[in-house]
Amino acid sequence: MTSHTRTQTAPATRPAAPMTMAAALNAAIRDAMVDDPSVVLFGEDVGPLGGVFRVTDGLYAEFGETRVSDSPLAESGIIGTAIGMAIYGLRPVVEMQFDAFSYPAFEQIVSHVAKMRNRTRGKIQLPIVIRIPYAGDIGGVEHHSDSSEAYWASTPGLTVVTPSNPADAYSMLREAIASDDPVIFMEPKSRYWSKAELALPVRTAPMSTAVVVREGTDVTLIAYGPTVKTALATAELATEEGLSIEVIDLRSLSPFDDETVSASVRKTSRAAVIHEAAQFGGYGAEVAARLTERNFYYLSAPILRITGFDIPYPSPKLEEYFLPTPDRILAALGTWEWS
């Protein structure tokens, strides 16, 4: 076993530069590892290869195999190992490689990761970050393009977050790694190569809060992860029709920021939820239900859901018909009666 002896220094402020979401995530992991020697990284091909999407590129060379290591192709083993590490004082950051690859670890996550703190009356904390690249629009096939957020968000004991831009990717991942509770960190694959000007380290809003990313007066579009870009494109297109759309980036799926989202819905009186996952039993159903319960007398129309279809993820040639688009969203908004 090789040893890593290079002295690490705390991350300093770096000049602003264009940065992709993948690079921002990489920087967040690196800075967390520099700040805290208990942070360790492992998963399938995260070592010398740098991960399928190169999010962990260079970390093995910098920190060595005692802190960055490849795992066997066994997701349940990855999570089981992370549980043991966390119990003994480490802060594991693990990668599931692809969304649907996480399902073999479902039992470990739901039965143990989510429940350990409650089961032990707070005596055992599991500060584990489970990184899951998710959703489609990259030409991937079945088992490589799932949107599995509803499974995790419906599990008490898990914090579930998803960034939509490089700044949030860095800030939210740093916060997730610092959390003493387990975090499902869902990374939208189609946004890995999106760029923004960043001066690191950057701190955005707390990861448990939603943010209004575009002001509007007529409709609230509620989006997260990959669909924030779609919602913003819809809002831009809607101006040609004289429609003022407000866009909210949820960022946190569990817990849910009722205050921010309800304030927007009460202002506009109309809302629609956008996600790539199938509609039936999808995350948007919970959003629509809780917003209706809290804001019924402010609504001028039923809350809509514009989503993927109720089918397994299609082949790359068909995904453009499956994913929500600005045209499909505007068509759905046109089904309301406007007075």
3D structure, described in words:
The structure is a single chain. The chain is α/β, with parallel strands linked by helices. Helices cover 33% and strands 19% of the residues. It is built from 12 helices and 14 strands. Strand 6, helix 7 and strand 7 (183-188) form a beta-alpha-beta unit. Helix 3 (75-87) packs parallel to helix 4, helix 8 packs across helix 12 (326-333) and helix 9 (258-268) packs across helix 10. Residues 1-8 have low confidence and may be disordered.
Task: Produce the secondary structure layout.
Blueprint: E1 17-20, H1 21-35, E2 39-43, H2 59-63, E3 68-70, H3 75-87, E4 91-95, H4 106-113, H5 116-119, E5 129-134, H6 149-153, E6 159-161, H7 166-178, E7 183-188, E8 195-198, E9 211-214, E10 219-223, H8 227-238, E11 245-249, E12 252-254, H9 258-268, E13 271-278, H10 283-295, E14 304-308, H11 319-322, H12 326-333
Parallel strand pairs: 2-3, 2-4, 4-5, 5-7, 6-7, 10-11, 10-13, 13-14
Antiparallel strand pairs: 1-8, 6-12, 9-11
Helix pairs in contact: 1-7, 3-4, 8-12, 9-10
Notable characteristics:
disordered N terminus; seven-stranded mixed beta sheet; five-stranded mixed beta sheet; alpha/beta
